[in-house]
Amino acid sequence: MSFNVIVEKLLESIKNELKKDEVLLKLRNDVIKPIVEQVLNIIYPYLLCLSILFITVILVIFIILFLNIKICYSNN
User: Fold this and answer.
1) How far apart are CA 24 and CA 57, in angstroms?
2) Contact between 14 and 5 (Cβ < 8 Å)
3) Phi/psi of residue 75, nearest 5 degrees
4) pLDDT band of 18, cuts 50, 70, 90
5) What letter would DSSP give residue 29?
6) What is the separation of C-alpha 42 from the centre of its chain, rounded to a whole number of angstroms?
7) Higher pLDDT, 72 or 35
8) Could you report the per-residue pLDDT of 19-69, keeping only the tens digit for each?
9) Rounded distance, CA 7 to CA 16, Å?
10) How does DSSP assign 4-16, residue by residue?
11) Rounded to whole angstroms, how far apart are CA atoms 55 and 59?
């Protein structure tokens, strides 16, 4: 038996096991969910700072636009 045949059988077996709901649920709850929670806990402060910066930039853009419009209409 060659190595390729063994690998193909192993991959097929894994694929069939992952189709089962109970295995998928265990994988989701025991592996994927904790990893996602850890990643979100790590990047949360950066996302918060980035969102505050984005909102600040948008506000500054609108203030500058408003002031430019005000200056344009006051000169006439």
Assistant:
1) 43
2) no
3) -75, -20
4) confident
5) I
6) 12
7) 35
8) 899 999 999 999 999 999 999 999 999 999 999 999 999 999 999 999 999
9) 14
10) HHHHHHHHHHHHH
11) 6
